[in-house]
Each structure stands twice: as C-alpha cells, then as structure tokens.
Amino acid sequence: MKSAIVIGGGIGGLSAGWRLAREGVAVRILEAREVPGGVIRTVGRDGFHFDTGASETMLKSRRMEDLFGEMGLSMRLQEADPRAAKRYIVRRGVPEALPTNPFNAPFCKVLSASGKISILREWSRPRGTAEDETVSSFALRRFGSDVLDYAFNPLVSGVYGGDPDTLSMRHAFPVFWGMERRYGSLIKGAFGLARERRKAGEAPYKKRLVSFEGGMTAVPRILASQMEKELVCGARVTSVEKPDALWRVTWEKAGERFMEEAEGLVIAVPAYELPRLALPEAIAEKLSVLSTLPYSPVTTVCIGCAREAVAHPLDGFGVLVPRRETRGVIGILFLSSMFAGRAPDGYVAMLAFVGGMACPQQAALPEMDVKALVKAEMGRLLGLRGVPVFESVQRWPKAIPHFPVGWQKALDAVAQVEQETPGLVVTGNYLGSPATGETLLRANDAALRLLATGRAG
Ligand SMILES: Cc1cc2nc3c(=O)[nH]c(=O)nc-3n(C[C@H](O)[C@H](O)[C@H](O)COP(=O)(O)OP(=O)(O)OC[C@H]3O[C@@H](n4cnc5c(N)ncnc54)[C@H](O)[C@@H]3O)c2cc1C
Q1: Protein residue with least CA distance to atom 50, ligand 1
Q2: I need a labelling partner for 152 at 20 to 30 A (CA). Which of 179, 194, 247, 286 fits?
Q3: Residues of the chain whose pLDDT is less than 70?
Q4: Opening angle at CA 306, ends 301 and 310, nearest 5
Q5: Cβ-based burial of 195 (10 A; exposed 0-12, middle 13-18, buried ≥19)
C-alpha cells in the first residue's frame, strides 16, 4: 500500500497514522479540531497542571510498553507514586481505604461482613450460562448486593462513568467475564491463571500506572511532532466515496473544500460521528449499529488549593463514590499525589468527576452550580475548607462508550465490513477497552491489518 487517509486525530488516529507513516505509506491524517488528541486535554496556570480527560493509563503488557518505546513516549513517561496503589471508596459518607493486601481484607470497612463472606463463597457458585449480561446481574449472581453496590458499582463509575444495570459485563470487563467462563469462578480463575503462567515459565508482566511529564497531552504532542507534514488540523471530513480502486475523501477547512484520494482508509472517529462521514451506503448501513452506542455524560472539575485547606491526607489514587452514596460527584482523583508536577509546592491538585450514567442531570448543571456541588462534596468527603485557588470545568457530554448487552453484534459488523472491504479499517475506543494504552495499541494493530490487506492485494 502506497497511500492512506486517516479520519480522526485523537490518539487512535494518530497511532494508526504513525504506524502507516513508519512503514513508508504516504499518510494524511484529518482532524476536525484545531489541535490533535481528541478527548486528551490539559488546562493549567501558576504551576497547576490538570488533565481534564484521561489523566493516567495502565501499562498492561510488554507489547504496550514496546509500542510506547517505539513511539518515543517512554522518554517522557512518569510512573505513579507508590501511594497511588491506595484507593478509597465511600461508605456511610466516609472514604474507606481498600485493602492493599489480602491480609488486611478482614479489617476493610468498604464491605459489610456479609459482603466479605460472599467473596469467600464465590468459588462455590455455579457458572453463568448467558451469552452476555449486565454488570449488576453478574455481580449479584456471583457475590450479592453489597459487593455490587460497594465494589462493582464504583468500579463501573470509575472506568466508564457507567450504570451497572445497563453496562455489559462481557464487553466492559472481558477479563473477569472470561475467568468465569473458563474456570467457573473469579477466585478459581485467579489461581488457574497464575498456575498456567507458572507452568509455562512466564513471569507475569508487572502492570504500572503511568502518565507523562507535562501530562497525557504529551502523547498526541509527541506523535504529532513526528507527523507535521501528514497531520491536517481543523479539517472536518464531510464525505467518503469509493468510485474506483481509490478512496475519495472530502473535507472542509476554514470554509474551503478539499479532496484527496488514497488506497487505504482508517476510520478513527467516535461511534456517534460515523453517520456524519457520509460513507458509501452499503458500508454505512452495516456500521449503523455503531452509532446507537450510548456514551456516558461526564463533567470534570479541576480544583487546586493549599495543602492545609484539605484535612484528608490524599494518600492515594483517589476516592470513588458508589451510587448509593453520591450526590452527583462519582469520583475524585488526587492528581498531585499520583504524579509530580501537577501542583506548585504547598498546593494540591484534584479532579472531580460529576454525573455519569448514574446522575446525568448533574453533568449538565450550569458551571457555577457544578463547581459549588464539587466543593461541597470535597468539604463533606475530604474536609476541604475555604476558597480554592484554581477552579475549572470541562464538559464531556459524550465521554466514554457505554457498551450495552449484545454489543458483540456491533463488533461482528465491523469485522465483516473490514473483511468485505479490503483497504478499509475501523478503530476506536468503542471496539474494546477505552483506556488510552489499549486505544493506542488497537489503532496500531488496525494499521497493521490495513498494511496486510494492501500486501495481499
Ligand atoms: C473524561 C474522560 C476521562 C478519561 N480517563 C481516562 C483515564 O484516566 N485513563 C485512560 O486510560 N483513559 C481515559 N479515558 C479514555 C481515553 O482518553 C479515550 O478512550 C481515548 O483517548 C479515545 O481516543 P480516540 O482516538 O479513540 O477517540 P477521540 O479522542 O474521541 O478522538 C477522535 C477524534 O476524531 C475527530 N473527529 C470526529 N469527527 C471527525 C470528522 N468528521 N473529521 C475529522 N475528524 C473528526 C475528533 O475531533 C477527535 O479528535 C478518559 C476519557 C474521558 C472522556
């Protein structure tokens, strides 16, 4: 393949474009906004520095780490402070620490006595048989209501801004889902996987929570700096045609229309943007299932204040607020405890998440009200006093994909379209885990698939 066009300059599109350029393909990356990076954004002043979308990611595998290295991201990598291993969940209005090792578990106040007993009994519960089910249904079946309310519910809020009553367990948490399917239980699965690794002589990869000097925007910045010629910002794609062997892509920039043709096409826009690309009818019809995907609405509020204005030690990753306990704030990250350089000396930086599927109306509150809500909740949960020195609000009306039960049919549709249409690949955070590292890896793999179809052709 000699040429390709990538639609979307979020980290997915940048990663795919980077791989194609590296393999010698003449690439054009078209990004609608004036800056690349999509939902990865940063605000800051006076020594404060906040990522208002993704603020960290988990390095989960050797392959992901190698890709970061190849992309030139490792040089700016920041490992999270070891304190970030500690996480809090609110119970009866108080942030309670989750145990950092199994020996502390009996003393943990996050779960009730019956919740802890239900975890010990999980191995004896029968294996599920459904093709897919909601997180609530899975958690109730395997653990009961206390573990659903105080473990699964905050996990779902923290990762997806989600609602366990409608989120698919199979697609949101495929590892847990697979462990039950394969071993009959999560506890048996944890032991089974460890046993298999030992047998195979495989050392487990030590996962690491990371960000970058200057924050997560380092990822799009570093990738874009290697593709100055290829990347066009402010370019909104308005139609895609396939009149012959080549893709013909039309876009608008500063009121003008442009058109370009290429052998390969990478679609890397959010699922809800697909209908606006005016794809060829047969493809649009098959992919129409993607645009039905709900996204959780989340508003993030950055708060910077003097260290002594917060009573809580902020000794951890942050605090998650289960639905039963929330008044609109679903979680608060202790950014300056996790990564150096997020607040000036003597100050702290925190990021609150408001709304989600649990309380969408709070995500839409006017700016003054959402700030007041967050400060009141930080007062109640963390002992925040006085007026913060930094406050800023970022709205994400469609923040994170919220996989419904049966989402497999959408993944099958994408696979079918790719199979029937050599020279086309689709990538995005809605085709698997939405985490930054996985989105980068998935897009890199999409580019490799495109190259493979090009070679086959
Ligand atoms: C509030 C929030 C918090 C998050 N927290 C974390 C976290 O802590 N850790 C983590 O790992 N992940 C986190 N994520 C998830 C992660 O950031 C995203 O899943 C990932 O960045 C998505 O990348 P993407 O390229 O697939 O999509 P996007 O970032 O949505 O990029 C798509 C791009 O396509 C462009 N586009 C759309 N239509 C067109 C068009 N017609 N023509 C041209 N361009 C177009 C858009 O402008 C956009 O730039 C978070 C996400 C959000 C919103």
Answers
A1: 54
A2: 194
A3: 455-457
A4: 75
A5: exposed
Residue 457 has a pLDDT of: 46
User: Helices 174-183 and 186-199 meet at what angle, rounded to 10?
Assistant: 80
DSSP per-residue codes, 241-290? E-SSSSEEEEEEETTEEEEEEESEEEE-S-GGGGGGG---HHHHHHHGGG
Tokens of 147: 């573990």
Mutational test site, ligand 1, from 50, 58, 436, 442, max ligand atoms within 8 Å of CB? 436
276 lines ligand 1 (CB under 6 A): yes
Contact yes or no for 333/282 (Cβ under 8 A): no
Output the six-digit token pair for 295: 């996204």
Tokens found for residue 312: 């809580």
- Torsion angle of alpha carbons 424, 278, 29, 49, nearest 10°? -120
Whether this prediction's pTM lies above 0.85 is answered by yes
* CA-closest residue to ligand 1 atom 48: 38
Domains of the chain: 3-39+215-293+403-456 (3.50.50.60), 71-83+295-401 (3.90.660.20), 111-199 (1.10.3110.10)
Amino acid present at 92: R
* Angle subtended at Cα 309 by Cα 304 and Cα 314, rounded to the nearest 5 degrees: 75
Atom 41 of ligand 1: nearest residue by CA position: 237
From 429, 430, 433, mutation site for ligand 1 pocket: most ligand atoms within 8 A of C-beta: 429
d(CA 379, CA 241): 55
**Is the CB of 294 inside a 6 Å radius of any atom of ligand 1?**
no
Residue that has been written with the tokens 């690309």 in this structure: 277
Altogether, the residues listed in the chain come to a count of 457
Q: What is the pLDDT of residue 101?
A: 77
d(CA 392, CA 370): 10
Q: Is the CB of 435 under 6 A from ligand 1?
A: yes
pLDDT of residue 455: 63
H or E stretch covering 79: strand 77-79
With 0-12 CB in 10 A as exposed, 13-18 as middle and 19+ as buried, what is 272?
middle
Q: Is the CB of 253 under 6 A from ligand 1?
A: no
Give, in order, the Cα–Cα distances in Å from 20 to each of 117, 262, 265, 409, 444. Answer: 52, 13, 11, 29, 9
Helix (H, G, I), strand (E, B) or coil at 218: helix
Q: How crowded is residue 243: how many other Cβ atoms within 10 Å of its Cβ?
A: 9
DSSP bridge pairs for 347:
306
Measured CA to CA, the distance from residue 372 to residue 378 in angstroms comes to 10
Q: Is the CB of 116 under 6 A from ligand 1?
A: no
Predicted pLDDT of residue 385: 96
Token pair recorded at residue 15: 């990663």
The residue whose two tokens read 């260290």 is 307
